[in-house]
C-alpha cells in the first residue's frame, strides 16, 4: 500500500486539529439580524404605547420645569421609565396616574426589559442547554451508525441506508470540516467535528456503542488509520470502508473492515457496463439507489418458504446467505431453503420494502 511517511501523517493531523465538538441537528431558525430587528421593533412599539398612555392621562402628571406634560414630555417619561433610569423630574400626582403606573406602566417596563435583555439571557443559558442536550443524546444513543466523511461517498451511503428505514437520529457524522458538519446537521444528522484517526474524536461519536461504521474518507491511508482505531474501540460493529485504489483493499480488511468497496473500480465497472449496454447500466444504477424503482433487499426466510427452492418463492431471489457463505440462486449447494437462511432479492421499491439489519460479518467466498 502507498502510505506517506510518519511526518506527512503528523502534518495532516496538525492541519485537522480542531476543537472536538459535537453538534446536534436543530430546527431552522431565523437569521440573527431578523431576530434582533423583530425585538427592537417590539421594544419600540412598547415605548410608543407607553408614551401615548402617559399622554392620554397627562393631567395626572406634573413636570418640574413647566408643570405641564406634552407629547414630547410623555415620550421622555416613557423612555426614562422603561429603561429604569427614573430622573424624577416628571411624576404622577393623582391616584389615576399612579394606578396606571402600577397596573400598566410597570408591566410594560418589565416587558421592555425582557425584550432587550432576552438575547443576553439566551446567550448565557445556551451553553447549559447544549450540555443538557448532549448528555441526553449520549445516554439515548445505542446501536447507531457512524459515518466518517460526509463527502459524496459518505452522503450517498447514508442516504441509501436511511432509505431502508434507518432514522436520522441514529446517524452520527464525523468530519474535520466545520462547514461539512454544518451541512450534516442541516440534513438532520448529529455531527462531530474532528480528526477521526484520533480515538477521542470517535469516542465523542460513541463509536464503542455503534452497530455499524461507514468509513468514506478522501484518502486511503486515512481510511486505514480510522479503521484500526474504530476496530480497537468496538470489536463487534460492522465496519464498511471505501478505498480508491484496489491494491489497498486487503490492508483495509486486515485492519478490521468487514467489507471494502473500491470506489474507483466500481465506478469503472459501471462505466464499462454502460458502454456495452446503456440499459443494463441504468438498471444497475437503479438497483443500487434505494427507495426508487427496483431495490436489492436482504430478508430472512419465512416458514412458508422452508423446503422450497430459491425460484419457488414469490420474490426474485438472486442469492442465498447461509451461515458465512453467499450462494447464487442456481448454486447446487443451496438445495432447498432453510429457516436460518437469508435471501437477497430484487423487489419493487415500496415503503414496506426494508432491509432487515444483520450485524454479522459475512465474508464472501
Q: What is the structure about, briefly put?
A:
By secondary structure, the protein is α/β, with parallel strands linked by helices. 45% of the residues lie in helices and 17% in strands.
Which structural category do the helix and sheet elements fall into? Answer: alpha/beta
**Rg:** 32 Å
Largest sheet, order of strands side by side?
Answer: 1-6-5-4-7-8-9
- Give the termini distance in whole angstroms: 24 Å
Give me the number of helical elements. 11
If you had to describe this structure to a student in words, what would you say it looks like?
- By secondary structure, the chain is an alpha/beta fold.
- It contains eleven helices and 13 strands.
- The strands form three sheets. A seven-stranded mixed sheet has the order 1-6-5-4-7-8-9, sandwiched between helices.
- α2 packs across α3, α2 packs antiparallel against α4 and α10 packs antiparallel against α11.
- The longest helix has 46 residues.
- It is elongated.
